[in-house]
Inverse folding.
C-alpha cells in the first residue's frame, strides 16, 4: 500500500473523513521517515490554512505539562466544537533506536473526540531531521484545518529549544518540589519562553518558586513585564486556566501577522537546513571518492583546497586532477 | 539514528475492564528495546479508542493484551472499525489466555497471531516483524 | 556445639579468608559455579555462604524477641501453630449469585466456617451488568451483583451471624458493605454480630491492580467513612486488608512488596487518624495480604521483616500502646504469576514450596492455588489437591510443631535484616515525595514495579532465570489452554432480571435515595447511612456509582 505523495495529497482532500484521516497520518509518517520530501509536500498541500495558534509546551517530567495541555484542549473544544485541534507529542528515542511514546495516555479524555488529532513522534536522534519532519507534520495538521496546534515535548535543554522554535509561542511549565525551577533557570528556554506557568500552585512551596523565578528574571535584566510572563495555575484544580487562555487569546490576536511571517521563515529555515544536509552529503561523497582526508593529512592539500574540491562535487571529477596537480606543486 | 530504516510503529493496548497490565507493559518494553516505536495506550480502552489512535499514529501493527470474555465481540468490532477507516492492512496480534476454540475464530476475523502466556520476547518480535504490512 | 558462643568476629573473618584461599579456591578451580553471580527474582545477589553476623542489629532480644511480643519478628502469637493452625481459606466465586450460593451452602455443609466472595469486574468498578462496558465481563471472574436482591440471593439460607465472609472488593466496597448489612438486617441479624473482612484497599488498585473508579482523594474519604462507621456498628468486622499480593504479582521485588504495602498502611492510618479515630481503636482490626512466591528463603525472611518493621512503625511513628495494634496479621496466597500453562502438574509442586515458605514465615491464613488456577475454574480434583497441600504441610511435615524454626539461620536473619532496611528505604522515599497519594499521582510506585517486572522478564527471556517446562525441560509440551465454562445464557438471564427489577421499583423512592446520596457525598457526613437507604430502595450499583462519580470525578491513569 505504498501511495505516492500526490495520491496522498488527493486523499487528504477527499470527501470521506476516514480517507482524509488516513492520508494525513500516512503523510506524517512519510515526512518523518523522509524529511527530504518536505518541499514536495508543501507544494502538494498548498495553500496551507493559518491556524490561530501553534503553541509549544515543555517542562520537566512531573511538571504536569501534559495535564495542562489536556486542560487547554478541553477548553478549546468546549469553546468552539467546530475548530479541530492538533497535538504533536515528542518523546526521546532510546539508544537502540526504539521509543516509548506514552503521551497519548495523558489525553485519553479526548480519545473519543473526532475533532482532536494526536500524533506521537520519537525524536530519533539528532541527525534524524526531527525539526524538518516536524514541519511536515505541522503542515499536515494545518491542511486538516486545525485551529490550535500544540507541540509538546519534555525537558528544557538544547533539543527542546530547537523543537519549540517551530511554534509561534512557547509555554514553559514547571512545578514546585522537583528542583524544576533551578533546571529551568539555567536553561536556554528561559529566554525564548513567552509564558511560564508554575503548576500545582496550590502547594505551599509554589510561592517560593514564584519568588525565585521573578528574582532570576530581574537578575537577567529582564524586560519590564517579565512578571507578566509568569502565571500561577493548577491544572488539576483548574485554577489560573482562564487567565492563561486569555493571555493566549490576546497573544494570538495581537501577533497574528508576525506569527504568519514567523511560520514562513521557520519553514524556510528548515528548507535551508535540508539543502545544507544534502550539500553535506554530496560533499562527503566527494571527500570519500577523492580520498581528500588522507591528502589533507599528508599535506598534499590544504583544508581550504579540499573544501573547494568537495563542494565542486560529482560533476567536477575530471577537474579534480588538474586542480590537484596545481596545488601539489 | 544507527540505521537508515525507519523504526516500526506499533500500538499496544488493553481492551476490556481487566487491569493487569504487567504483560502489556513488558511487551511494550521489549519491542522498544528491539527498535520499535511503541505507542502504549494503557488499560480500559474501547475498540473505538484503539482504532482512532492506530489511525492517527499510522501504526503498522496493533498488539492487544486481552483477558476478557468478550474477546470475540471486541475483535469483531475492532476489525469493522479498521475496515471503515480503510486500515484493514494493519497487522493485529493478541496476547493473553484465549480458549483454543476461539483462536481459530479470531484468526478468521483477521488476527495474525495469538501469543499464549510464556511466549518468549524473541518469538513475539520475530512474528511481528514477519507479518507487517509494507511500509508507507 | 549449639551452646558455644559465637566466634570472635576477627577470628571468624580470618578463618573465612583462609577457607576461601585454601579450600574453596581449589574447588572453584576444578569446577566453576553454575551462575555468576547468583541473582534471585528480586534482583538480589545471593552469597555463597552466610556466617554468624557480627552486628545483628539489637541482638536477639531487641531484634528478634519472643513470639507474641514486640517486635513480633518470630510470630504474632505466643504459641503460633501449636495452639491453632493457620486458617485454610480457599476462594470461590463465579457466575451468578444463585450458583455461588449453591457452592457456599455446599462448603458450609462440609464444615467450612469462612466464605470468600470474588466479584466480577463490572461489580468491582461499579457498572451495572447491562452497561455496554460490561459486555463479556458479567459473572466472568466472580459473581455479578447489581442490587440488594442479588446479594440476598447470594446469602440465601446462610445465617450471616454464623459465618465469616471475606469480600474481595475495593472501589465499590462501601456499597457492597451496605448491601451486606441490609441483607443481614432482613435476616434479623444485628450488624454488630457480623464478622468478616473487606479488602477495601484502593491504593493498591492505582499502583498495581487497575480496578479503581474514583480519584484517590475521594476514594480515601470513602475508606475513612467505612472505618468510622464500622468501628461503631460492626466492631467485629475487619475493615481493610492492606494488600501486597497484587503489587508482587504485578512484578515488584519482595522488598517493594512489603515497602509499598506498609507505605499504603501509613496512608490509611493517617487517613483514619484525621477522621478523629484513635490509633488503638482501629489498628487491631487492620489486616494484611501478601503473596508467597518462589524464592524460598527470601519469602520467609520477607514475612519476618514485615512483622518487625510494622511493629516498629506502629509504636514509633504512631505511638500505639495496645500490643495488638503492633501485630501484623496477614493472609497469604501463593503466587499466581509463578504458575505455568505448560505442564500444569508442575504447579502443584510450586504451590507446595510456596505454601511451605508462607507457613515458615508465620502466616495467619493461607490460600493455595489450584494447578490450573489462571486458566480455568478449578476442577474438584485440582481444588482438593490444593487444600490437601495445606493438610500435608500441617500434619505430616512437622514444620508447624515449633515456632519460627528458621530463626537463627545466618542466611534468613541476614535476609530479614536486609529486607527490612530496603523496605524502610522505600517508605522513606514515599514520605519524601509527599506521601503515597502524591507518589501515585507521579507514578513513582508504578514505575518501581514496572522496572522490576521488566528486569525479571528480561532474565527469564535470556534463560538466566529458568522456568521449568517453559524455557528449560520443556519436553515438547503444548501449553494447557483455558476452558472457560461460564454459561453465556446465565449472564443474559441475569441482565434480564436486572431490567425487570428496575422496572418493578418505586422510581420516586430510588430517585430520592440517590439525591440523598449525592448530598451526603457532596458534604462532610459519612456516606454509609445514605448508601444503606439507597441499597434498601433497590438502587443499582451503576446508579449509585454514577452519582458518586458525578461528584468525585473518575480516576484516569495518565501514566500507563
Amino acid at each position: 500500500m505504498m501511495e505516492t505523495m500526490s495520491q496522498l495529497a488527493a486523499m487528504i482532500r477527499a470527501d470521506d473523513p476516514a480517507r482524509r484521516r488516513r492520508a494525513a497520518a500516512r503523510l506524517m509518517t512519510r515526512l518523518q521517515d523522509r524529511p527530504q520530501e518536505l518541499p514536495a509536500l508543501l507544494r502538494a498541500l498548498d495553500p496551507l490554512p493559518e491556524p490561530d495558534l501553534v503553541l509549544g509546551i515543555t517542562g520537566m517530567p512531573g511538571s504536569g505539562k501534559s495535564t495542562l495541555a489536556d486542560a487547554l484542549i478541553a477548553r478549546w473544544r468546549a469553546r468552539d466544537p467546530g475548530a479541530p485541534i492538533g497535538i504533536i507529542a515528542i518523546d526521546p528515542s532510546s539508544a537502540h533506536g526504539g521509543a516509548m511514546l506514552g503521551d497519548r495516555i495523558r489525553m485519553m479524555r479526548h480519545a473519543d473526540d473526532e475533532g482532536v488529532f494526536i500524533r506521537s513522534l520519537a525524536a530519533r536522534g539528532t541527525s534524524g531531521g526531527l525539526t524538518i519532519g516536524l514541519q511536515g507534520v505541522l503542515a499536515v495538521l494545518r491542511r486538516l484545518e486545525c485551529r490550535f496546534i500544540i507541540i509538546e515535548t519534555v525537558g528544557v535543554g538544547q533539543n527542546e529549544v530547537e523543537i519549540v522554535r517551530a511554534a509561534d509561542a512557547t509555554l514553559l511549565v514547571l512545578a514546585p518540589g522537583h528542583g524544576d525551577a533551578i533546571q529551568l533557570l539555567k536553561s536556554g528556554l528561559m529566554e525564548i519562553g513567552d509564558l511560564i506557568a508554575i503548576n500545582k500552585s496550590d502547594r505551599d512551596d509554589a510561592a517560593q518558586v514564584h519568588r525565585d523565578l521573578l528574582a532570576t528574571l530581574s537578575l537577567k535584566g529582564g524586560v519590564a513585564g517579565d512578571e507578566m510572563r509568569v502565571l500561577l495555575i493548577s491544572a488539576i484544580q483548574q485554577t489560573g486556566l482562564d487567565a492563561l487562555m486569555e493571555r493566549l487569546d490576546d497573544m494570538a490576536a495581537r501577533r497574528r501577522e508576525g506569527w504568519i511571517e514567523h511560520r514562513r521563515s521557520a519553514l524556510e529555515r528548515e528548507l535551508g537546513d535540508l539543502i545544507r544536509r544534502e550539500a553535506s552529503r554530496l560533499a562527503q561523497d566527494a571527500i570519500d571518492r577523492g580520498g581528500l582526508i588522507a591528502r589533507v593529512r599528508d599535506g598534499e592539500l590544504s583544508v581550504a583546497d579540499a573544501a573547494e574540491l568537495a563542494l565542486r562535487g560529482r560533476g567536477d571529477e575530471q577537474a579534480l586532477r588538474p586542480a590537484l596537480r596545481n596545488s601539489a606543486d | 539514528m544507527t540505521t537508515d530504516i525507519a523504526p516500526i510503529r506499533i500500538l499496544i493496548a488493553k481492551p476490556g475492564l481487566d487491569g493487569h497490565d504487567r504483560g502489556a507493559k513488558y511487551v511494550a518494553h521489549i519491542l522498544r528495546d528491539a527498535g520499535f516505536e511503541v505507542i502504549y495506550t494503557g488499560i480500559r480502552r474501547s475498540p473505538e479508542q484503539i482504532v482512532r489512535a492506530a489511525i492517527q499514529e499510522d501504526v503498522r501493527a496493533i498488539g492487544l493484551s486481552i483477558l476478557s470474555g468478550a474477546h470475540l465481540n471486541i475483535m469483531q468490532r475492532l476489525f469493522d472499525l479498521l475496515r471503515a477507516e480503510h486500515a484493514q492492512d494493519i497487522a493485529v496480534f493478541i496476547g493473553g489466555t484465549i480458549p483454543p476454540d476461539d483462536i481459530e475464530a479470531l484468526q478468521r476475523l483477521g488476527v495474525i497471531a495469538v501469543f499464549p502466556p510464556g511466549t518468549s520476547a524473541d518469538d513475539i518480535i520475530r512474528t511481528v516483524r514477519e507479518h507487517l504490512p509494507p511500509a508507507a | 556445639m549449639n551452646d558455644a558462643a559465637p566466634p570472635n568476629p576477627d577470628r571468624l573473618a580470618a578463618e573465612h579468608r583462609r577457607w576461601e584461599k585454601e579450600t574453596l579456591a581449589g574447588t572453584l578451580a576444578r569446577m566453576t559455579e553454575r551462575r555468576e553471580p547468583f541473582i534471585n527474582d528480586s534482583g538480589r545477589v545471593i552469597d555463597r555462604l552466610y556466617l554468624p553476623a557480627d552486628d545483628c542489629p539489637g541482638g536477639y532480644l531487641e531484634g528478634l524477641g519472643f513470639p507474641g511480643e514486640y517486635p513480633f519478628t518470630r510470630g504474632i502469637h505466643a504459641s503460633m501453630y501449636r495452639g491453632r493452625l493457620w486458617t485454610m481459606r480457599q476462594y470461590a466465586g463465579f457466575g451468578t449469585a444463585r450458583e455461588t450460593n449453591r457452592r457456599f451452602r455446599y462448603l458450609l455443609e462440609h464444615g467450612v466456617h469462612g466464605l470468600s466472595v470474588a466479584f466480577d469486574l463490572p461489580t468491582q468498578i461499579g457498572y451495572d451488568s447491562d452497561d455496554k462496558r460490561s459486555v463479556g465481563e458479567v459473572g466472568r471472574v466472580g459473581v455479578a451483583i447489581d442490587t440488594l436482591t442479588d446479594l440476598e440471593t447470594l446469602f440465601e439460607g446462610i445465617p450471616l451471624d454464623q459465618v465469616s465472609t471475606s469480600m474481595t472488593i475495593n472501589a465499590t466496597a462501601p456499597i457492597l458493605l451496605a448491601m451486606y448489612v441490609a441483607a443481614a438486617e432482613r435476616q434479623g441479624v444485628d450488624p454488630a454480630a457480623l464478622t468478616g473482612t473487606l479488602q477495601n484497599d484502593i491504593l493498591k488498585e492505582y499502583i498495581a491492580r487497575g480496578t479503581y473508579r474514583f480519584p484517590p482523594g475521594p476514594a480515601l474519604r470513602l475508606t475513612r467513612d467505612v472505618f468510622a462507621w464500622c468501628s461503631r456498628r460492626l466492631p467485629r468486622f475487619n475493615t481493610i486488608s492492606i494488600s501486597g499480593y497484587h503489587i508482587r504479582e504485578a512484578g515488584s521485588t519482595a522488598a517493594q512488596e512489603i515497602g509499598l504495602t506498609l507505605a499504603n498502611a501509613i496512608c490509611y492510618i493517617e487517613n483514619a487518624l484525621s477522621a478523629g479515630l484513635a490509633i488503638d481503636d482501629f489498628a487491631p482490626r487492620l489486616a494484611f495480604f501478601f503473596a508467597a512466591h518462589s524464592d524460598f528463603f527470601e519469602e520467609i525472611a520477607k514475612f519476618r521483616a514485615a512483622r518487625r518493621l510494622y511493629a516498629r512503625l506502629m509504636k514509633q511513628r504512631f505511638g500505639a500502646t495496645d500490643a495488638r495494634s503492633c501485630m501484623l496479621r496477614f493472609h497469604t496466597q501463593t503466587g499466581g504469576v509463578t504458575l505455568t500453562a505448560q505442564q500444569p502438574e508442575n504447579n502443584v509442586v510450586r504451590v507446595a514450596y510456596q505454601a511451605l515458605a508462607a507457613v515458615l514465615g508465620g502466616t495467619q491464613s493461607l490460600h493455595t492455588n489450584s494447578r490450573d488456577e489462571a486458566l480455568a475454574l478449578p476442577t474438584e480434583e485440582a481444588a482438593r489437591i490444593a487444600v490437601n497441600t495445606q493438610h500435608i504441610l500441617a500434619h505430616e511435615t512437622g514444620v508447624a510443631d515449633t515456632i519460627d524454626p528458621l530463626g537463627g539461620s545466618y542466611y534468613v536473619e541476614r535476609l530479614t535484616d536486609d529486607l527490612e532496611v530496603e523496605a524502610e528505604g522505600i517508605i522513606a522515599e514515599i514520605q519524601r515525595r509527599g506521601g503515597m497519594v502524591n507518589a501515585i499521582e507521579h507514578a513513582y510506585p508504578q514505575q518501581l514495579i514496572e522496572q522490576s517486572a521488566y528486569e525479571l522478564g528480561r532474565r527469564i527471556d535470556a534463560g538466566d532465570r529458568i522456568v521449568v517446562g517453559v524455557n528449560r525441560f520443556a519436553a515438547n509440551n503444548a501449553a494447557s489452554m483455558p476452558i472457560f465454562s461460564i454459561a453465556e445464557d446465565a449472564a443474559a438471564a441475569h441482565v434480564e432480571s436486572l431490567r425487570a427489577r428496575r422496572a418493578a421499583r418505586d422510581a420516586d423512592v430510588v430517585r430520592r435515595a440517590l439525591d440523598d446520596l449525592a448530598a451526603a457525598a457532596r458534604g462532610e457526613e459519612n456516606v454509609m447511612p445514605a448508601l444503606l437507604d439507597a441499597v434498601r430502595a433497590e438502587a443499582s450499583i451503576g446508579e449509585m456509582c454514577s452519582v458518586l462519580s458525578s461528584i468525585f470525578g473518575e480516576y484516569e491513569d495518565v501514566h500507563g
